[in-house]
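In response to the reviewer comment on reproducibility (Comment 2.3), we provide here a single inverse folding case reported in full, input and output, so that an independent group could reproduce the run without further information from us. The structure tokens appear first.
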């Protein structure tokens, strides 16, 4: 009888934990660190919503597939630190199923007595935009940009480098460099970061805007 009561209590506790895991309003992923690359073994509903996949589609997927290729090295570093027993807080760029990217804050730690890592992922697009907007004082009004210049500026705001801008817009790197020079002159700024901040302040672009 006592054993049966313990079993019932244990089952009830597991069900509560499962309900909490599934319904927490934060994105949670669990990855298996015993394989390389680390593979997702469990996600909650919020994770599926954030990335645009079903839970079944995420399970079995390599964890580094949820970030663009240029961010995968940073994910591997996070995993290495977790494997050494640390709890890691880091900001990375993540990628949704539809290919759009977003800045995220990741908090990851190793599960006790297992080879699994549990991570929470928070979309910090709005927070990062507020930080960027606070970094510079209001800039003066500028001459209007052409459609071609705006296309370049939007990609700059998303953090795309000149080579990838050239590829996306079917231009040469030289043409992109020239357009950036003109944009800087019109905006009265001296670098890409200031130009991106100006575009954000003016509402010309957002950090989660898909490339046009």
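Designed residues, in position order:
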């Amino acid at each position: 009888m006592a054993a049966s009561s313990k079993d019932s209590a244990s089952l009830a506790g597991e069900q509560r934990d499962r309900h909490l895991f599934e319904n927490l309003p934060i994105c949670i992923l669990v990855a298996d660190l015993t394989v390389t690359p680390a593979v997702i073994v469990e996600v909650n509903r919020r994770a599926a919503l954030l990335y645009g996949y079903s839970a079944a589609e995420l399970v079995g997927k390599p964890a580094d597939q949820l970030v663009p290729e240029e961010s995968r090295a940073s994910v591997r570093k996070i995993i290495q630190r977790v494997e050494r027993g640390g709890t890691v807080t880091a900001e990375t760029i993540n990628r949704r199923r539809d290919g759009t990217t977003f800045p995220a804050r990741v908090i990851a730690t190793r599960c006790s007595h297992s080879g699994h890592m549990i991570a929470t992922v928070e979309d910090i697009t709005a927070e990062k935009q507020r930080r960027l907007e606070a970094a510079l004082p209001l800039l003066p009004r500028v001459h209007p940009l052409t459609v071609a210049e705006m296309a370049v500026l939007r990609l700059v705001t998303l953090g795309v480098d000149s080579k990838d801008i050239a590829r996306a817009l079917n231009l040469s790197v030289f043409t992109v460099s020239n357009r950036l020079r003109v944009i800087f002159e019109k905006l009265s700024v001296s670098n890409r970061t200031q130009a991106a901040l100006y575009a954000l302040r003016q509402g010309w672009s957002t950090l989660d805007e898909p490339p046009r």
